[in-house]
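Calcium voltage-gated channel auxiliary subunit alpha2delta 2
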Amino acid sequence: MWPRTHPCQGPQDTRLCPQPLPLLPMPVILRAAAPGCTMQHWARRLEQEIDGVMRIFGGVQQLREIYKDNRNLFEVQENEPQKLVEKVAGDIESLLDRKVQALKRLADAAENFQKAHRWQDNIKVRTADDPESEDVERGSKASTLRLDFVEDSNFKNKVNYSYTAVQIPTDIYKGSTVILNELNWTEALENVFIENRRQDPTLLWQVFGSATGVTRYYPATPWRAPKKIDLYDVRRRPWYIQGASSPKDMVIIVDVSGSVSGLTLKLMKTSVCEMLDTLSDDDYVNVASFNEKAQPVSCFTHLVQANVRNKKVFKEAVQGMVAKGTTGYKAGFEYAFDQLQNSNITRANCNKMIMMFTDGGEDRVQDVFEKYNWPNRTVRVFTFSVGQHNYDVTPLQWMACANKGYYFEIPSIGAIRINTQEYLDVLGRPMVLAGKEAKQVQWTNVYEDALGLGLVVTGTLPVFNLTQDGPGEKKNQLILGVMGIDVALNDIKRLTPNYTLGANGYVFAIDLNGYVLLHPNLKPQTTNFREPVTLDFLDAELEDENKEEIRRSMIDGNKGHKQIRTLVKSLDERYVDEVMRNYTWVPIRSTNYSLGLVLPPYSTFYLQANLSDQITPAAGDFEFLLPSSFESEGHVFIAPREYCKDLNASDNNTEFLKNFIELMEKVTPDSKQCNNFLLHNLILDTGITQQLVERVWRDQDLNTYSLLAVFAATDGGITRVFPNKAADDWTENPEPFNASFYRRSLDNHGYVFKPPHQDALLRPLELENDTVGILVSTAVELSLGGRTLRPAVVGVKLDLEAWAEKFKVLASNRTHQDQPQKQCGPSSHCEMDCEVNNEDLLCVLLDDGGFLVLSNQNHQWDQVGRFFSEVDANLMLALYNNSFYTRKESYDYQAACAPQPPGNLGAAPRGVFVPTIADFLNLAWWTSAAAWSLFQQLLYGLIYHSWFQADPAEAEGNPEARESSCVMKQTQYYFGSVNASYNAIIDCGNCSRLFHAQRLTNTNLLFVVAEKPLCSQCEGGRLLQKETHSDGPEQCELVQRPRYRRGPHICFDYNATEDTSDCGRGASFPPSLGVLVSLQLLLLLGLPPRPQPQVHAHASRRV
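Structure:
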């Protein structure tokens, strides 16, 4: 395609201009006139018409005068970014510090209670008669009580402040001596929880997660057990993992020799996946399989961050492992040590460990350990004997014991979860031995609270076992658990400025991984309870080099300020704007967080009203909020903000306005229960917009200019739509700060057109009763005493059908609408004309996102608002290829998608060995490993029905959830670098099309005139704008250029006094022939396994 420029002399020159000869024959219609000069003439007519309407009805100049006339009613305040961000950071620090003090009291008390506790071997448990009742059992010995729960909005739950509650994982026997003793001594924490709340009533959940799996939390609330399997185990929660050990570099090696097959291989695959779930974003991992040789199971060739997306790659790759060859421990361990010694990559640089899963072997590979790990033993080795076999496990035990690790056995499914997480006890030893030095509070990533609080961060503090076995004995090195206190993100948000920053200003915060805990774009559509919410700052915004530098500086704990030009998405995610933004950031002391403030230049100043005598219904401008005034003054929508504490919220704006008026009749001016800033600014803007009605709108005839409505929206929260009847079709958000037209108008100069939103899958617009309109808006910029700000947006709503007719006239050779059309016959000469030649010429107005605004083709009127590629794919592609549009692609990691249908519809659990009658009658079979494996498989199957295909979302998350988290690819288009007016040919042989395009000044519109396609040969590629499901960027490529991050500042991976003699010796119990025979008969009779009763939260007094 070749651009052809047409220089016309002077703004009013409409004469024919010389143009180069086309390389291909000119279309018939465009041959008759010089399209460049004609187009420029039409463009000027369109620009003048739009500007004239906006000047008459928009009232920008008049609104400026109104603000100046009311100058005594408000003050101009300044946002000082450095002071603002430091104040907010200080407020957040104070909030978190109060939680830290409560944490320390709890941790100290827990250690003392456990130290004073006397172990009881014969402890008994008393349970409630009805396990489904809301009765609460007080620990292990007390009687059962029925509790009353009250709804508490702070917890979004029913709670009882007098008691604690307990949750015990499904796969742990709650009547065991260990658990009963745990319940006994932790019961004493109840008074500490209550005292903490008395000192700080804002405290939310206070939780002790025990290393035994017991969770004691306060206040008591019924446990939210899912409909299927309750897989909640506190030891696998993000906050517990982070608090129980220092960061880890882990290499998992899996034996895939020929002896590993069937159920054993499945157990290994599941074990690896469960092991990955014990890792957090502070950890690094790689997974390899080995037989004679070792190789990574995925495309990752080195340690990678154990984030959600990388772990997903591992889990999918592990399923492809195939057993073959012979066992070669040496190959596996050499590969693992090489991985851990690679210093040219980003890694945790703290605990180093190798986790080996095998079915057994004889080689101890002592020479490998001597070469790589001895004498310092900086790498711990954990070995896992998987499945039922007759191999000697002594070599596996020796490997673990000789390398400061632990040996575990996983004979069946039920042993997987417990034995893949207990290595954390070993990693906790150096932390316990470090004593007070290790008693440091850490703050977590954002995650979803299991009890319904929503998004939270948690302060964690490890709790150590301070007991000694006897006088002069070594100090105990076991971690008792982790203490945690939740802080809701909403509580942190309340400390940030709400409305003084304007519609496009905001506060955000990130952690050492670069993940946001505060950001207006942090809006996960669905959450997985087993994973933290990890949205990177560079994914929350559109990434560029400047933001990478800002992110690095924040992670490093520096202060800074930078003004950048960057791209931002519109609120409806249909547009991208290039804007100026000021970034200011400071660290939040005593935490791993950093706080940032983003301000557009026009938000440096803001208005603060002072209307102490204008708030009551009987005074001032308040009367213009009353519905009785709407018929003459236009309909008023008020932003649903928290003006007063007692104001009842409502999604219905009419009802919300009614609630507001009723409350204003009761409260006094400047009431302490109200936010005076919000209230005063609302009333000020009510009066300001009413004066606009009085001075401009009321005396104008909207029909003369084919307008459906005029409107004004303000920072103060007022949206006034005139006339009143137009409010029936008003679909914009009543909160201006959440309205796309409002935010885009502030960021763009001139007039911003917004056609009605149309989805390609929905039916076309219905042009009935002239209700379909196109919004045209522009910001009102004030200059007061040398200070510039934009406190309002005004605009009009065009009647689509009438303006489509007007567009044809303006893009024709008629001088006005009443002039008759010129008829063209076979012998008459016709100039290029979008009205007369509409059968041959396509004339359209497109906005800066590539959406159709107006067309000279009547059949396209119902397609207004659609992406133009859906209307004319060939022409849109040509505009993109000629740089009229630029494309921006990004990924939405917070999307929700419909669940995929299950791949296996069979009723039986996969991987279960079902013996034949011959096996049943063969006595040798009963003594074989197969029979023992079957017994344990069925025993745990009663609890974990369909283990291998259990849906984590339903098993542990919200049982009503019907959607799962997924990645969506988003594509937006915006104006490219071409500002000139030129035409080009779309080369399609005999079907070539000439088009001419020109930007309309002071608008976001592109005017395009093109030859209609003569045949289908011009059909080329189609540009896509619609959001599509995606796997995201290629993870194998991303890990080669990892984003900058820093791990926690503390590391406890070594202590010279550590006792490594407890390294696992394995355990087993003999089979019972009677049980095996009974289970076999059940199988042969085809009886389904009996479902496990639902386990409710157990409390100090059983829930």
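The two ends are 74 Å apart (CA to CA).
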